[in-house]
Fold this protein.
Amino acid sequence: MSDKYVMAVDQGTTSTRCILFDRKATVVSVVRGEHPQSYPKPGWVEHDAARIWRDTQRLIGKALREGGVGAEQVAAIGIANQRETVVLWDRATGQPVAPAISWQDTRTSVAEIDGQFIRERTGLTPATYFSATKIQWLLEQHDLGDRAARGDILFGTMDSWLIWNLTGGRHLTDVTNASRTMLMNLETLDWDDDLLRLFAIPRAMLPSIRSSAEIYGTTLGGIPIAAAIGDQQAALFGQTCFAPGEAKCTYGTGGFLLMNTGTTPVRSSHGLITTVGYRIGAEPVTYALEGSIATAGSLVQWVRDGLGLIGTASEIETLAATVEDNGGCYIVPAFSGLFAPHWRSEARGVIVGLTSYITKGHLARAVLEATAWQTRDVVDAMNADSGLALTALSVDGGMTADNLLMQFVADVLQVPVVRPMNAETVSLGAAYAAGLAVGYWSDLRDLRANRHRAGQWKPSMDLDHRAAEYANWRRAVECAMLFSR
């Protein structure tokens, strides 16, 4: 396989990317296509799944052409995806029956759900973030229950949707994506009948659950589809966090911090999610603790598009650097509520500490600091749950190009922050899983050998100042919880 490559399809919240990697995990070609998000009502976020599939087809071909690679040279394709986003489609026509509901969407409610029962069965905290209530809403609003019970209407997260189309109709998902639906039993790794009854979701509409790395089928060109893995678990795998206690945080639209906890699930008592990290073939499943931050890069996007304070996302660092501190201003970006460790879907964003002294530079700095403080909230909870003290944090995602932000993260966590040479860790994780499934890479040691450090930030903030600033942040979070819808 010396002349072969592995392709990753990373189907994300705002774009789809296709990347070809060689055996040393070097990027051979990378292509990207954005897709619009629709906001038909406050709190509603929708995608056009049919367009996403068309984009994926086009981008696969473009990645091959730009890499000068023929389909016969691709050893396997791995899929990473945006996890909880829900697609329902007609089995006969293969067409979506409604817009896909994004993971960010808050139209549903979990107010009447027994949280303890959900946590025991799934490791999750009831939230509109997960797939179950979105599926239930679509079935009810479009009167699809009977058709779904017959198996005429199918459900999938974006991995299932792409696998269905790429393989000519195989209805499958992997264990990481299934673990995000609020329908999978964390112990049996199968759909839970009690949960299906609770949400009135027929088993007949659900995909079969497989490991994260095995051959699911082949494309029309004969390329094996050999991995599917939720994007944040893919980043964990791409960062080679293979040992318990190793953790990564991906800073994209949201922020997602995962810690490998080994082959035994660690139940959280501090507002985190217990989830599946990955499963390679028939090997035991690896579990993880996860803390999800709803709004990170999307806050910068709002400052650019909603307020017009910057022209490009990268300008946020330049603007923030015009001042020495936040001037006493704090932003809690609870646009979709507060995720881990608070889980307050009714919370709304606030800006506190405004005085006539505050400039747009202070606001820019408060934007960056909000991401770091949210990371601190999650890490504190993770340390308490796992019994392990985080000693370093591996980071990836677009926001890691912001040196001011990365230094602030190191300061508030009081641990080194490390960025790898290959920043495409989500795609790389999907590629690694697919490559392992077909023998392109032999084992985890092969994957570790490809990892090289590109940057590191060490903490330098005065501890008393850090404590005072964190206390102010916590007071701002309390304001966001009070100002609910």
